[in-house]
Amino acid sequence: MEVATGGERGLVLSPTAKVVGSIVKIGCTVTETGLEIVGEPSIDDWLEAFDHVRDFKDVRCKWYLGDLLNEGERRYGEMYSQALDATDRSYASLSKYAVTAEKIPKSVRRPGVSFEAHYQVRNCLPDDMTHILANAELHELTSQQVGRMAAGESIEDVIAPPEDKPLTFDDFEKQCTRLQNFLDKWGEQECDWHETRGPEFNKLREVVCGTFSTLAAFIRETEGNV
Predict the structure, then answer these.
(1) pTM score, two decimals?
(2) Residue 29 φ/ψ, nearest 5 degrees
């Protein structure tokens, strides 16, 4: 764990941690997977901290924002109303960061596991959470695979190679439906990416769903002749 120090009440977050490298007027300890405020900074100092972490594009930014939000709620209240003005993130994104940071203890977080994978285990029991995240890091699982383990599948089933069997029409139709449902749900989410690329995404969704529907109808009509 790296401790950022310096200044009368301010500090410099260590550049070696590649966190901010700028003065932040709150004392805090910083790791690859979290941030913890030390001392009693003012609410203005807390809000200023968002200026120094919001532009980071990797997973650490989400942990830092989540931890800052949770600390702010505990210390100052009005968790999102002022933080929204200090970031370019949507309410839904900030809420997700905060919930994940609140549910996943810092001692359990894994730097080699994506933030989305951590989100998948937020409702697991502590021992299960630790077990799943350890396997996620060891086997480099995707967030979808982590979600399957969180739903009760074993690591053996999750990493097992898919069976080599012919794809039936029913299988194809189920996969089309799953993809369409995924695209519909993703299109409804309030996320940073969707806010800027929403129109392009919706057009892509219409093309993909329309193509699958047309192809499925064609196969259904000609299936008896194949």
Answers:
(1) 0.64
(2) -105, 145
